[in-house]
Predict the structure.
Amino acid sequence: MREIYEQLGISSQVYDFGREIEETLKDRFAEFDKIAEYNQMKVLLAMQKNKVSEECFHSSSGYGYSDYGRDTLEKVYADAFHTEACLVRPQIACGTHALAIALFGNLRPGDEMLSPAGKPYDTLEEVIGIRPSKGSLAEYGITYRQVDLLADGTFDYENIKKAINDKTRLVAIQRSKGYQTRPSFSVKQIGELIAFVKGIKPDVICMVDNCYGEFVDTIEPSDVGADMMVGSLIKNPGGGLAPIGGYIAGTKECVENASYRMTCPGLGMEVGATLGVNRSFYQGFFLAPMVTKGALKGAVFAANVYERLGFAVVPNSTEPRQDIIQAVTLGTPEGVIAFCKGIQAAAPVDSYVDPEPWDMPGYDSQVIMAAGAFVQGSSIELSADGPMKPPYAVYFQGGLTWEHAKLGILMSLQKLVDAGILSKEKLV
Ligand SMILES: *Cc1c(COP(=O)(O)O)cnc(C)c1O
C-alpha cells in the first residue's frame, strides 16, 4: 500500500500520519455507513415501488411529451423524499436556477419573502435583488426581509416573530452554511424553525435550500414540514453521474407553481425532453447515499488531520455533520495555494495542471480553485477553493469515493510539507 501511495507522490511520513488518524475514526465512519445503508434502502424502496424498468432509460427529444422515464424518476424522488411531487430536470441549469424557479413560481407581486436564518447563498442575492439585478424578485415587486442569527448561531425567534406580517408568503431556510462561518443546521433544527413559523402563520410556504445536505442524515427537511426542498444534481443527489440538473421536491401545489416558471404557464411539467440523461439521473440517485458517505468520510478525515496539526477547522474533528463542506484555515496565502495544488494533483482529470489564484467575477479578492472533475464545476467531486484574503481558509468538499478524498487530503498535506509550510517534525 505504502508503495502505490509513494508512486502517487505521498511520502511514507505523510502516509503513516494519515493512517494513524484514520485508525481513530472507525466509530465515526461506522456511523456514516449506517446512515448510508438506511438511505440506500430508502432509494431502493422508492425505485421498486415505482417499478423502475429498462424503459425508463429511454431518451426523448423535441417537446418531450410523455417521457415515461422522466415522469417515473420524479415519482422516485418524491417517494424517497416523502413529498407529493417533484421536478427533476436537465433543463434546470444549476442549484441557483432551481431555487430561482421555486421562488418566482411561488411568489407574486406584493408578497414578501423572509430569510429567518441570515443572509442566503451569494448567488441568491441577485435572484432576490439584495444586490440590484436585472429580472430580480425585487423588480417584480416582491419584497425581502431578513433576520440574522444570534451571536451563538441559533435562530432569533423573537425577531422572526416580529418579521412575519400580512405580506409574508414564503420563508427560505438554507441548510448548509455554504461559504459562511455560521454552523450548518440539522434537519431537526430546521423542523423546529418551520414549526415556529407555521405556528404564527400556518399558510406560509417554507422552502429549504437543501444543497450539499441530501443523504447526510436519515431524514430530510421534507420530513419535518418543509413545503419545498431544492437542490442541485451536480451535488449529492446526482451521485456524481448526473451531468446537469436540479430538483424541487414538495407539495403538489408548490411544485406545480414552480413548473410554470421552469417552462411556462400552461405547459408546466408536461414538456421538457430528457435528451438521454435519464439513465445517469437514475443511476446517480441510486449511488448518491454511498457517494455522500464517501464525501463525509473525507470531510471528517480532513478535519482530524488538520486539527491535529494545529489549524482551525469548521466543523471541528468531533462535531456532527449536516453537510459535506469542510473549512480549514491555513492562515497564509502560501498555505491556501499549496492545499489547493494538492487537491488538484490528486484528481483523476487534469491532475497535471497547477491551480492559480485569479480575479473571479463577483468576488472582492482573488480566488483559487482546485477541481479535476468529470463534470464541470461538480462539487460532489473532490474540489477545494478559497478566497485569497484573511483568514486564508479553504473550503473543501466532495470526493466520489472515500479513497479518492483521502488521497486528496494526503496530497494537500504533502504539498504543504514540500513547500516548507509544514515541518516534517509535526507529522508524528
Ligand atoms: C451550491 C449551492 C447553491 C447553488 O449553487 P449553484 O452553483 O448554482 O449550483 C445554493 N445554495 C447552497 C447552500 C449551495 O451550496
Remarks:
- DSSP finds twelve helices and twelve strands in the chain.
- The two ends are 20 Å apart (CA to CA).
- The first strand starts at residue 85 and ends at 89.
